[in-house]
What we know:
The chain contains five helices and two strands. It has helices spanning 11-14, 24-74, 98-105, 111-119, 131-140, and strands spanning 89-93, 126-130. The structure holds zinc ion (ZN) (2 copies).
Amino acid sequence: MQPAQDNTQNTKFQQPTKPHYKNKNSERAAVWNKKFIEKRRARMAVWRGDNVEKNRAYQRKYKVKLKNLILNHYGRECACCGEDHIEFLCLDHLDGNGNQHRKATGNKGGHQFYQWVVNNNYPEGLRILCHNCNQSLNIWGYCPHNKL
Ligand SMILES: [Zn+2]
Ligand SMILES: [Zn+2]
């Protein structure tokens, strides 16, 4: 706790080493400015915190919408095992050259690839797999379900 008399002290006497301003107005403006910058900084921190959440929620909505568009076109279940939880499903290249394809289209994969598919009117040669079947086919060249 600070003594009560501190509140009545002028900031210019507390910091005598500070450069002198041309007149009282600019001196007051400088003090006000400093307060304003601090307030704005605090406000911005709150704003950023809020927006991270909003942005995250927006991104999630956008990705779900995109995925539903894809699934509505290519089918809503794994072509191998029939898994139908959309959280587990992904888009697979029938010819297994997903990486070359993604490189050729300039996409990094994930929802950017989904967006590319939607923008390009759902090209041929793609199918829906669950991540298990997709990974197994990519790494082992077959799926233990033995359906593909
Ligand atoms: Zn599957
Ligand atoms: Zn499978």
